[in-house]
Specification:
Elements: H1 4-15, H2 23-28, E1 32-37, E2 50-55, E3 61-65, E4 80-83, E5 89-93, E6 101-106, E7 112-116, E8 130-134, E9 140-144, E10 160-165, E11 171-175, E12 184-188, E13 194-198, E14 211-216, E15 222-226, E16 231-235, E17 241-245, E18 253-256, E19 261-266, E20 280-285, E21 291-296, E22 310-315, E23 321-325, E24 330-336
Antiparallel strand pairs: 1-24, 2-3, 3-4, 4-5, 6-7, 7-8, 8-9, 10-11, 11-12, 12-13, 14-15, 15-16, 16-17, 18-19, 19-20, 20-21, 22-23, 23-24
């Protein structure tokens, strides 16, 4: 369902990030510039597919990546890494725990949450289809789902894409990667007890096709990046549909800061998937839905079918934008050069 207000908001996209005809205008007025690859990796290690990047309360930056490749299968590398604010490596953990790193979240107590969405090829028994909670020192505190087993019951997932935790500890899991997954949101209490589920496959309100990202604003509203439907859907914490936004493109990753500035990574828009839209990071107001800035994807061919730039995005207190790149296997930063 599209409200009149949503249609008005969509007009902002015609100015910021929609269509090749406005690409030049966007480039002339883009308030961000690339600061290049970020982070000093341990000796001998290179970035793999970077799928998550987030700041913690102390200003350190955490990164979730696929063990130097696009998978952590048969790897002895840690997929969860911590850096200080200057990019100096501090620690890492998680080797052997995750087959295909995907969702990433840091809760208000500093716990690290990840999802294992499985991936491509054979996955060994005991890996995949889980959501895990770690301490900042790497101790596993909680596992949701049954490792290595997919399903659609209250205690099972099918390639969970992302996770977010409310201030009261309630856990929300975007369950399903790709159009053929469960296409639902599953809610648990802080102990991991199942509370409710909402959603099914489809294009309508409260339906999903690849719920690829999930985030929460300061009002406690749940934002779901409904990627294959080219929209963000907004819900109450009890699954009541509030609104849908298409003006942020084809959402792969969503980050909302403490001032309700929303950053949406669109790594897939092209002529086939989302005609007329450019890939990149759209920035706006999570309260009103207005798009205010756009960081154009660095891929020179806008119709390249492969995932290109940022698939996930994080922002630190200084406003530096961290672009987690899966296809290019890189972590790129952008800095604001004008208001």
């Amino acid at each position: 369902m599209r409200t009149a207000r949503t249609m008005m908001w969509a007009l902002t996209a015609a100015v910021l990030g929609m269509g090749a005809g406005v690409e030049a205008a966007v480039g002339q007025d883009q308030p961000y510039r690339s600061a290049g690859t970020w982070g000093e990796l341990p000796d001998g290690r290179e970035w793999g597919a970077v799928i998550g990047v987030l700041p913690d309360a102390d200003g350190n930056i955490w990164v979730f990546e696929r063990c130097g490749e696009n998978s952590c299968l048969d790897s002895e590398l840690d997929p969860i890494l911590q850096f200080d604010s200057e990019g100096r490596f501090l620690q890492s953990f998680g080797a052997g725990a995750v087959a295909w790193p995907h969702g990433f979240f840091i809760d208000h107590e500093g716990h690290i949450w990840v999802t294992d969405a499985v991936g491509f090829g054979d996955t060994p028994p005991g890996l995949g289809h889980t959501v895990m909670k770690f301490t900042a020192e790497g101790e596993l505190l909680l596992t949701l789902g049954e490792p290595g087993r997919s399903g659609d019951g209250p205690d099972l997932f099918d390639s969970p894409s992302d996770v977010v935790v409310a201030p009261n500890g309630d856990i929300f899991v975007a369950d399903g990667h790709g159009a053929g997954g469960n296409n639902r949101i599953v809610k648990f209490d802080s102990s991991g007890r199942f509370l409710m589920v909402w959603g099914e496959t489809g294009p309508g309100p409260g339906q999903f096709s690849d719920p690829h990202a999930i985030a929460m604003d300061t009002q406690g509203r749940v934002f779901v990046g409904d990627r294959y439907n080219n929209r963000i859907q907004i819900f109450t914490q009890n699954g009541e549909f509030l609104e849908e936004w298409s003006q942020f493109g084809r959402p792969s990753g969503i980050f909302i800061d403490a001032d309700d500035v929303i950053y949406v990574a669109d790594s897939e828009s092209n002529a086939a998937r989302n005609p007329g839209w450019e890939r990149g990071i759209r920035i706006g107001d999570a309260r009103t839905g207005w798009v205010t800035a756009f960081i154009l994807d660095p891929e020179p061919d806008p119709d390249n079918s492969a995932t290109s730039g940022a698939e996930y995005v994080g922002v630190d207190e200084e406003g530096r934008v961290y672009a987690a790149e899966v296809g290019p296997r890189n972590l790129t930063t952008y800095v604001r050069i004008r208001p």
